[in-house]
Amino acid sequence: MEADNEAKGKVSDQAMQNPQALAALQDKLDSVSHSASIMDSLPKSVKRRVNALRNLQVNSTHIEAKFYKEVHELERKYSALYQPLFDKRRKVVSGEVEPTDEECEWQSDHEDEAALAEDLKKKAAIEEKTEDANEEKPKGIPEFWLTIFRSVDMLSDMLQEHDEPILKHLHDIKVIFSGPDQPMSFTLEFHFEPNEYFTNTVLTKVYKMKSEPDADDPFSFEGPEIIDCEGCEIDWQKGKDVTVKTIKKKQKHKGRGTARVITKQVPNDSFFNFFNPIKGTLHYASDEDSEYTLATDFEIGHFFRERIVPRAVLYFTGEALEDDESFEEEELDEGEEEDQDDEEEEEEEEEGDSKTGDPQPAECKQQ
Prior knowledge:
Layout: H1 2-16, H2 19-40, H3 44-94, H4 101-104, H5 111-130, H6 144-151, H7 153-156, H8 164-167, E1 170-177, E2 185-192, E3 202-210, E4 225-230, E5 244-252, E6 259-267, H9 288-308, H10 312-317, H11 319-356, H12 362-365
């Protein structure tokens, strides 16, 4: 019993040393304090009615949770309809299938682009005739997924130079949703062609989700959230593990004065650390760095699922990047406008205070 209390005390101490945990706790206390002050000011009969509305709100959150679970079922259903298209994409990317001329026709919305496309088509036809018959032609779409990794900031931040030769062997990424009778989750599958780096043909990352109100705080429910993730073991070939590096360190014996060189392996930055996530959930991370790492990991998993996999070709061409940048700019502009409005309000308040010359409001004077 004492050991349990001591363990709880240590967890509590760690939480109190976490600035984000303290901030969240303070926000919650402020919210409770604010709602309590409003409730305290109400007549008893009105309080009863407000409590009735609270219970209605709890019922509403449970209906909302059911709604999101059914949305998950719809996603699972429609993923089966999308899959034949994604399978065809994989075959074209890998060179397993050559699309027909009809499938390669692309109608541009802009006349200039259409004219340019026609010119390029004619030029390509002429060049193709003059090419040496023995010249090697690229198979499929080389470095399709690697190009996407390089283009998307969120992924390029994880990408290291030593990762790139490995990712050239990546030929598909799939999203697999959990079954109807299973806890809500989705799995990212990274499919690799045979390579010299590891023996796995598929690397997986499972994201576990929750879509139900918290019994202790039902009003905080805002829909499904990722609560945990689980990677997989990579079976690296000898000397090919890019997630570790070998360093040499010289040690000197204090008594004898002799020295020796020892080698040891230490962690190395790599995209493939993505498959070895830190243990713990977002709300119970051991420290601020771990909480940030988990939050980033969950964001990346969600981005793969919602954006990268469904719209891969648009990230390859850069068209989706333009859409993302436009959206970010719109958000930034709105934020800047809000900041300016706040500054103007503050200036007006300062001017009003300086004109009165008396910090006390009129109500205080009349008392």
